[in-house]
Write a structure and sequence with these properties.
heterodimer; A: alpha+beta; Naphthalene 1,2-dioxygenase Alpha Subunit, Chain A, domain 1; 2 domains; four-stranded antiparallel β-sheet; globular; B: Nuclear Transport Factor 2, Chain: A; six-stranded mixed β-sheet
Chain lengths: 430, 168
């Protein structure tokens, strides 16, 4: 490979049960350039949730894979992801973070687009030739936009396979989140916008890593939880890990005693809540049967949708996505997801439960940031210490959540895309 | 609630409030967090709203921090121990507090706002937190206590900070 790169980025040795990743994958700008082309310009990427723009004309601006976009619901009711650049000379046509509008007018020369992206006004249009056709100069949409149960994804590859096929086995895990509501899930207002001085793939690994939970989050499990009346001595973490295809993976941990607003009661919520949460659970059993209801309500899951969407349905539900600006710096956006019909009282429990663990001011996430930044600093030794080990549990028949199968799944798919050995699947030519 | 208090408000001067806030800042910068807790009422709460919803309500909006008394005390205990990796070893901090204003007095309750800049130094990097405080203080038996403390960041995102691992 170029630039004196190692012969392989990933050592995947089934025979001996060894899995290694070369640390230049975390430090090399050349690798990041390949990732932008072969991963982020191909795969389906999370752009937002339909509940963030509930009414016609509602919009939010953000970045997806480094591109400024407008997530907007047109007057026609359709959700679009418009690339936020004027087709005239390139200025961002929308400079607000959110709002409701019928039109986006570029402040530079006042070209005006409606909220469906069509160019509807060009000052002094009579100065243009007949070849100038404003019907062809609407705001450009992301090449592909598809939704699954409210989650809006884009792909910058026009020929990408459809979203449901891409999601593969991850689809049923999204269902387990969505089935918590009869009326649909919604993003709660308030976004945790933060960052990490570390490579993006470290956050992928960390978000689905059962092995780190106790050492990294000792302050939560051994100091905070006991304060809330949890008998941590009796806590057992007996989760499993599973590959879901296309690089997606999940770890699932039944009955961790931190409480789940839908629907696993804990003593800290008070006796008065017990019957209500139990009734919620019984209703899930009636709707879906005992097994599916148990999986919805009593099992906590850390879900990776390749490459950069994490949905952790644990003591609260967080939706987290991130993008690298440099090999050692990423921007992260995280939201809380909840049933639309949730009572104000339970919404408070949910948000409280979220903040005890999650987010850049919680009792866990700051320590993840700390450890991932410590890894990144450690990689300055990459010339002498080339490989990271991700072999844990590799020969186990049924991998545990505290094993590293889920990371191996990510890295195999990453390696296929980067080396071109199995590129992103595209649709058959029409 | 008065929006401007040009005159000292019944029995308490801005100077007294400033002294109190400067003392609090010194305790936090010196990591004397157990002494800092003594400045709080038993039921004190501490909030840091998300940067995109600075005026949000923590009951309906996702915050960065929304500590009730239990979580706040747990936070201090964690920070004073060795399990909070993000602050082990501890960062250095330096707080600048200014523009202190008494915004209203009702009975024993005093509403105060102030501007802050908090610098956090670690691994030879400097992270700068800029914002304003909203305090609810109570005056009892001649001493001031903090009942509510809200650190509202002017930052548009925690970038490049990545976290709020200290008490802002």
């Amino acid at each position: 490979m170029e630039n004196g790169a190692p012969e392989s980025w990933v050592i995947d040795n089934h025979k001996d049960g060894l899995f290694r990743v070369h640390r230049r994958t975390f430090t090399d700008p050349h690798v990041l350039a390949l990732e932008k082309e072969r991963v982020f310009a191909q795969c389906w990427l999370y752009a937002g949730h339909e509940s963030e723009i509930p009414n016609p004309g509602d919009f939010r601006t953000r970045q997806v894979a480094g591109r400024p976009v407008i997530l907007v619901r047109g007057t026609d009711g359709q959700v679009r992801v418009l690339l936020n650049t004027c087709t005239h000379r390139g200025a961002q046509v929308c400079r607000e973070k959110s709002g409701t509008t019928k039109t986006f007018q570029c402040a530079y020369h006042a070209w005006t687009y409606n909220n469906q992206g069509e160019l509807v006004g060009v000052p002094g249009e009579d100065a243009y030739s007949e070849a100038f056709d404003r019907r062809q100069l609407g705001l450009v949409t992301a090449p592909r936009t598809e939704s699954y149960r409210g989650f809006v994804f884009v792909s910058f590859n026009p020929a990408m396979e459809n979203l449901v096929s891409y999601l593969a086995g991850a689809r049923e895990y999204l269902d387990l989140v969505c089935d918590q509501s009869e009326n649909g899930m919604e993003i709660i207002s308030g976004t945790q916008l933060y960052s990490m001085r570390a490579n993006w793939k470290l956050l992928v690994e960390n978000s689905i890593d059962g092995y780190h939970a106790l050492p990294t989050h000792k302050r939560y499990f051994l100091e905070f939880l006991p304060d809330t009346g949890v008998e941590v001595q009796r806590m057992r973490i007996a989760g499993t890990a599973k590959s879901l295809g296309n690089g997606h993976a999940v770890i699932a941990n039944p009955e961790i005693p931190f409480g789940r607003p839908v629907a696993d009661w804990i003593p800290a919520w008070g006796e008065a809540k017990k019957a209500e949460i139990e009734a919620m659970y019984q209703k899930l059993i009636a709707r879906f049967g005992a097994e599916h209801a148990y999986n919805i309500a009593k099992v906590s899951r850390n879900l990776l949708i390749f490459p950069n969407l994490i949905i952790n349905d644990i003591m609260s539900v967080t939706v987290r996505t991130f993008f690298p600006l440099a090999p050692d710096y990423i921007e992260i956006s995280a939201w809380a997801l909840a049933p639309k019909e949730e009572s104000p009282e339970n919404r408070v429990l949910r948000l409280d439960n979220f903040l005890t663990f999650l987010g850049p001011g919680g009792f866990a996430t700051p320590d993840d940031v700390e450890m991932l930044e410590a890894c990144q600093r450690g990689y300055a030794n990459v010339r002498e210490v080339e490989w990271s080990d991700i072999s844990r549990g590799m020969t186990r028949q049924a991998p545990l959540a505290s094993d590293e199968l889920q990371m191996q799944v990510f890295w195999r798919r990453w390696n296929e895309l980067i080396t071109g050995s199995r590129p992103a699947r595209v649709r058959e030519a029409a | 609630m008065a929006t401007i208090a040009a005159q000292p408000v019944q029995g308490i001067s801005r100077e007294q409030i400033e002294d109190f806030l400067y003392y609090e800042a010194a305790l936090l910068d010196e990591w004397r967090l157990d002494e800092w807790l003594e400045l709080l009422t038993e039921d004190a709460s501490y909030y840091v709203p998300s940067t995109d919803m600075p005026d949000g309500d923590h009951r309906t909006t996702l915050f960065l921090i929304a500590d009730d008394a239990l979580r706040l005390r747990s936070r201090v205990r964690q920070l004073m121990g060795k399990s909070a990796h993000a602050e082990t070893p501890r960062s250095r901090t330096r707080r600048m507090i200014s523009n202190v204003r008494i915004r209203g007095v009702e009975g024993e309750t005093i509403q105060v706002t102030a501007n802050f800049v908090v610098y956090r130094m670690r691994y030879e990097l400097v992270d700068t937190y800029v914002g304003r405080y909203e305090y609810t203080l109570v005056q009892r038996d001649g001493t001031l206590k903090i009942r509510e403390r809200r650190a509202i960041l002017d930052l548009e995102a925690l970038r490049p900070h990545g976290k709020v691992s200290i008490i802002l």
